[in-house]
């Protein structure tokens, strides 16, 4: 569904998942379909610098993961398998038997699970700024975050406060996460744009309880014992300055997935799809063109 520019708000397409609506939209109608899967606490607007470039060559499918944006926000915990099944249900809703999948951060974990549980549904696989399992740094960052935003000594302590939402200020959470996701220069130069970006997402309603439902899915993710069975063309992307998911996670992914290609962007951060959108887009589109469905 292309975005309207005439001020008219179109009806939002959703697929029902046991009473939880999953929002999706499509852009473009040329070439192989591509499903874009966004990360923790971010809705489909996180791909807005990809959509024009990708839709010029592909039919692009976006969705808001459960717990964020225009999708339902039931209490957690969630699982990556559950989020993957949501995405497959969206593929079914638009009548796509197969698609390339590009996943960023938590979206990359969802993409791994789709590849492992529904391999016939995928063409090529792109895993950006993500991991097969959370290493020590990720767990330590989670602990620092829980203490910074709510004074909880651990994530379990934080989740224990009203199931993880009542005691937490979403803006305080964003202040903690933004320096981990973007460079100082990007935060300084694009401050107004980022404020509008997150204000728009907050306008759809934000549930800290649902956010921590996603966090629980991320922390429980571990595909290390299963990735060796993949036989899909796979591109693993990392930024060497990623402070949220350090590059060695991508090194592990590329070792575990047979034939995977590893692409490092020097100096790029976790939010590389926004900070270096042109280079990210060119690299992904080149990879997808080399592996048609």
CATH C-level class of the domain at 14-136 and 208-289: Alpha Beta
Any idea what the radius of gyration is? 18 Å
* Strand line-up in the sheet with most strands: 1-2-4-3-5-6-7-8
- CATH homologous superfamily annotation of the domain at 14-136 and 208-289: Alpha/Beta hydrolase fold, catalytic domain
Extended strand count: 8
CATH architecture descriptor of the domain at 14-136 and 208-289: 3-Layer(aba) Sandwich
Task: Give unreliable regions as ranges.
Answer: 1-10, 156-164
Strand content: 15-25%
Write down the CATH topology of the domain at 14-136 and 208-289.
Answer: Rossmann fold
Count every helix, treating DSSP H or I runs of 4 or more residues as helices.
12
Q: Element order, helices and strands?
A: EEEHEHEHEHHHHHHEHEHH
Indicate the mean pLDDT. Answer: 89
Per the principal axes of the C-alpha atoms, what is the gross shape? globular
Largest sheet, if any? 8 strands, mixed
Query: Helix amount, in percent?
Result: 40-55%
Q: What structural class results from the helix and strand content? A: alpha/beta
Termini gap: 22 Å
